[in-house]
């Protein structure tokens, strides 16, 4: 679902566009260019429908594109202003609509938006040969913080600098570590991931540095450690805050002079390994409490990257959902391309305590259970959908009255229809009669809200 801005001071055009495109995304209005730029800077829009006379003022489309290079434009103009609209199209706008705007013209122009959006993104990054094609989906983001992170990744990846990834569990630290490795000069060498928090303290040194035969009870043969396995490549130390004090000492030695020895061995081994560490804990607090070595922290903290939780980058939800659905289609082959708009609306209001990992797991479960061609609310945890109803926009939150009203109507319709369908066991005619509408109207509402009558039928009902 897109974030859409309508830049116009014409009330009739605003009402028509907001009604026709209500299912296409979250729509906001700006009566002038300064307001539009302010809103776009606070939270970048995907699509802007702009009065050509308002947009023509300096600096025009370029100011919006500097914030979000993938923003699309449709210009609104009168017949006498068509020449300016054509110039805007030459400058990058997807198309134009003649005033007074007609509903059918909007519907005719919408398909071109999806084609243009995908093409522009691919061309922009394919021109920049730094990013490998298979990683283009990963680096898509409308979030200013994530864009900065990817800029930092581009800067640090070609170096040998130690990187420390910070963030809550499930934010994608492991994926970012792989992104760094695959865009470094070591991408043809091993990438070895170690989840330090899953290894007991008594075994962590052996796992990382290896041991000699007879070094301890049960050491029946020599075993190379993960640092030896990663030689020439990258080692990713996840949950680095959990390692024991003795392992901290040995890791510090590796960071300082690139040497280590196996447990029970006297031989000093040299290593050429790039270290990427990650943690969801506060290492500085550990240093203050004396449970984490200060010198090790400083060695790890050469190039810190803090990844925001999913609730702080909700503008990327649509990208992430699309990416996961593509992966699931490859894995399971059901060819489900999207989620119902009401699902995405619920996702936008959910807190996501498990972050991106939780989103991926929820979508996989829903994908397996789904029988329709889109992911519907029926196969998702109720919390993700109730969140939208609980989080009704309040005055002063930047929502227009039309948006608040639409939000309330949708929540009310879903609740009302769900109750009726449960009461009638999913019988369409009976439900429509009780609701005082036609069966055709009911079916439209069910489709809009992702409600499936089969979910309400008892086994005896056919």
- What percent of residues adopt helix (DSSP H or I)? 40-55%
Sequence of strands across the biggest β-sheet? 2-1-3-4-5
Report the CATH architecture of the largest domain.
3-Layer(aba) Sandwich
CATH topology of the largest domain: Rossmann fold
Integer-rounded radius of gyration: 27 Å
Gap from first CA to last CA: 35 Å
Helices, by number, come to 20
CATH H-level superfamily of the largest domain: P-loop containing nucleotide triphosphate hydrolases
Task: Give the overall form.
Answer: globular
- Under CATH at level 1, the class of the largest domain stands as Alpha Beta
**What share of the residues does DSSP label as strand, in percent?**
5-15%
Identify low-pLDDT runs: 123-127, 392-397
Q: Mean of the pLDDT scores?
A: 84
Q: Please, how many domains?
A: 4
DSSP, total strands: 16
* Structural class estimated from helices and strands: alpha/beta
Sheet of most strands: 5 strands, parallel
Keywords: ATP-binding, DNA-binding, Nucleotide-binding, Phosphoprotein, Transcription, Transcription regulation
GO molecular function: ATP binding; DNA binding
Protein name: Response regulator with CheY-like receiver, AAA-type ATPase, and DNA-binding domains
InterPro entries: AAA+_ATPase, AAA_lid_NorR, CheY-like_superfamily, Homeodomain-like_sf, P-loop_NTPase, Sig_transdc_resp-reg_receiver, Sigma_54_int, Sigma_54_int_dom_ATP-bd_1
């Amino acid at each position: 679902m897109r974030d859409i801005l309508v830049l116009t001071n014409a009330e009739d055009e605003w009402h028509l566009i907001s009604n026709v495109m209500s299912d296409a995304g979250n729509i906001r209005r700006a009566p002038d260019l300064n307001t539009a730029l302010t809103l776009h800077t606070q939270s970048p829009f995907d699509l802007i429908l702009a009065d050509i006379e308002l947009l023509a003022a300096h600096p025009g489309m370029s100011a919006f594109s500097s914030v979000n290079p993938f923003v699309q434009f449709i210009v609104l103009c009168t017949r006498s202003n068509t020449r300016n609209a054509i110039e805007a199209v030459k400058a990058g706008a997807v198309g134009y609509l003649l005033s007074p705007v007609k509903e059918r013209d909007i519907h005719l122009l919408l398909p071109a938006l999806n084609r243009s959006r995908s093409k522009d993104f691919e061309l922009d990054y394919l021109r920049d040969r730094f990013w490998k094609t298979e990683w283009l989906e990963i680096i898509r983001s409308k979030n200013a913080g994530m864009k900065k992170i990817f800029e930092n990744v581009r800067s640090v990846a070609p170096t040998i600098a130690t990187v420390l990834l910070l963030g809550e569990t499930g934010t994608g630290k492991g994926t970012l570590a792989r992104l760094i490795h695959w865009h470094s000069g070591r991408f043809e060498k091993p990438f070895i991931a170690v989840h330090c928090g899953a290894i007991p303290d008594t075994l962590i040194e052996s796992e990382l540095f290896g041991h000699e035969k007879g070094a301890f009870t049960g050491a029946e043969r020599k075993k190379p450690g993960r640092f030896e396995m990663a030689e020439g490549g990258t080692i990713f130390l996840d949950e680095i805050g959990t390692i024991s004090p003795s392992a901290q000492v040995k890791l510090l030695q590796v960071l300082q002079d690139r040497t280590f020895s196996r447990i029970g061995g006297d031989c000093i081994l040299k290593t050429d390994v790039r270290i990427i560490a990650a943690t969801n804990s506060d290492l500085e607090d550990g240093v203050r409490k004396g449970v984490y070595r200060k010198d090790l922290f400083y060695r790890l903290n050469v190039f810190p990257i803090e990844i925001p939780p999913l609730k702080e980058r909700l503008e990327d939800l649509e990208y992430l959902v699309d990416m996961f659905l593509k992966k699931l289609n490859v894995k399971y082959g059901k060819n489900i391309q999207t989620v119902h708009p009401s699902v995405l609306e619920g996702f936008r209001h959910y807190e996501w305590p498990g972050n991106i990992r939780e989103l991926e797991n929820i979508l996989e479960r829903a994908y397996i259970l789904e029988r329709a061609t889109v992911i519907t609310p029926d196969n998702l945890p109720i919390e993700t959908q109730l969140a939208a109803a609980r989080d009704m926009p309040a005055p002063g939150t930047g929502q227009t009255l039309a948006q608040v009203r639409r939000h309330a109507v949708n929540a009310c319709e879903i609740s009302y229809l769900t109750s009726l369908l449960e009461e009638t066991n999913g019988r369409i005619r009976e439900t429509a009669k009780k609701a005082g509408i036609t069966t055709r109207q009911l079916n439209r509402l069910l489709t809009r809200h992702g409600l499936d009558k089969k979910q309400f039928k008892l086994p005896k009902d056919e």
